[in-house]
Structures are given as structure tokens and as C-alpha cells.
Amino acid sequence: MLDDILSIIAPHHCCGCDEIGSLLCGNCKYNITSEQKMVCIACGRPSGVTCLCKKCLVPYEKAWVVGERDGPLQRLVGLYKFERAKAAYKSLGDLLLDVLPELPTETVIVPIPTTTGRIRERGYDHMLLIARYVAQARGLKYQQLVRRQTNTKQRQATASKRDLQAKNAFFVSGKIDADTPFLIIDDVMTTGATIKYASLALCNAGAKHVWVAIIARQTLD
Ligand SMILES: [Zn+2]
Ligand SMILES: [Zn+2]
């Protein structure tokens, strides 16, 4: 409601073409999702139906990625994460909805938890908003099953430091049904450590089917 009022006062501009109206117009959204590459998120090689090849050993069974972290997608994620553009959760959620296939009705969507400090800075829990939006659109459940152990920020850390931090970062709160598919969602994947250890936490708690969906994949070079 407040977002709608604010967008009348200060209208949104499309992150791709600057058109007034929304943070991502239909055309630019189509350009992103139609260029979706089926490459493995763990090794970068061409994959099959999902973004995970058969050779990579990871704690999740399936993966989907909207796109690389550049261009309009990078701007949209940046606005949402760092410039308090709360309304972007809808555009980002719509992108995920476009690349996700039909999921089993018992699927539970699990957002990657954000540190309390970041939630305070932004004024919202950014992945929780997207999880709720995607779950409601598909008629699925969402649950904050994965929690953060420490409040270490990831952004400036080096790859090896990130891995070490992520390793002990998560724990599971809540009951895990082994047959339920859990779809972990996150905005940006850099080294993959976050998604790996969040998945591992769910597996260690008894989950047998952990899937992941990422909005933007950052290629480290
Ligand atoms: Zn546009
Ligand atoms: Zn692979």
C-alpha cells in the first residue's frame, strides 16, 4: 500500500531501459529470462534440465538460476539490497517464478536468513519477502527453517574466509520431514558457500530433497 503511494509520488524507473512505471518492465524482464543459460552453478559447464550437472557433488539435488549478475539484473538486485527499494521484491520474485518449473504441492520454500543488522539497515528481511511472494504465487508454504548462528557479514570477505564463515553460519530450527522437498532461495551466489552450507544444515537435520533457486550468479574472476 505504502509502496503504491510512494511510487505515484516518485515513480519507479525500469532498471533496464529507464521506462517509467516499474522497476523492471515486461520487455526487460523477458530479455533476462529468455537468455537464461542452463549451466551448472557449481562448475559452469552446460547442464541439463536444471542448473546443476550430474558430476558435481553438492548437498542439493536441483538448482535454478535466473541469470548472471550483470546489466539490469545486477541493478535491480543492487537497488533491493543496498538502496532500500523494497518494492523490487515483486520484480525479483517474478523472475524466479518465470524460471522455476511447476513444483510439488508439498514443497516448502526456505529463504536464506539475513543478519539482524542488515534487516535493521534495510528495514526489511529481503529474502523473506521474496520467499513469501513466490510461495503465495504458487500456493506453497514458506518457512524460515534455516537460521543464522553468527552475525558475520559476508560482503567484504575473501573466498576462503567466506567458506569458513559459512560453514558454521547456519542451523535448522523446526521439524524436517524427510520426504518434503525444500527449495532454498537466495539473491546472489558468489562462491556458493552460503548455499552449500545452508543445504547441508537442512540435510543434517534430516531433509532428503534440498533444491536451490538463485536470482543472480556472480562469476568470480
Ligand atoms: Zn525496461
Ligand atoms: Zn557441475
Description of the molecule:
This protein has 221 residues and is of the alpha/beta class. The protein has one domain: Rossmann fold, CATH 3.40.50. The chain is 37% helix and 17% strand. The chain contains eight helices and seven strands, in the order ααβααβααββαββαβ. The strands form two sheets. It has a five-stranded parallel beta sheet, sandwiched between helices. It has a two-stranded antiparallel ribbon with strand order 4-5. Helix 4 crosses helix 6 and helix 7 runs parallel beside helix 8. The protein is globular, with a radius of gyration of 17 Å. It starts with a helix and ends with a strand. The relative contact order is 0.16. The mean pLDDT is 90. The site of one zinc ion has 7 residues, from loops.
Task: Calculate the mean pLDDT score and round it.
Answer: 90
| Radius of gyration, taken over Cα atoms and rounded to an integer in Å | 17 Å
How far apart are the first and last residues' alpha carbons, in Å? 42 Å
Largest sheet descriptor = 5 strands, parallel
**Total beta strands:** 7
Helices and strands, in N-to-C order? HHEHHEHHEEHEEHE
CATH architecture: 3-Layer(aba) Sandwich
Ligands:
zinc ion
Helix content: 25-40%
Unreliable sequence segments: none
The gross shape turns out to be globular
Give the number of domains: 1
CATH class annotation: Alpha Beta
Strand order of the largest sheet: 1-7-6-2-3
Q: Tally the helices: what do you get?
A: 8
CATH topology: Rossmann fold
Structural class: alpha/beta
Beta-strand share of residues:
15-25%
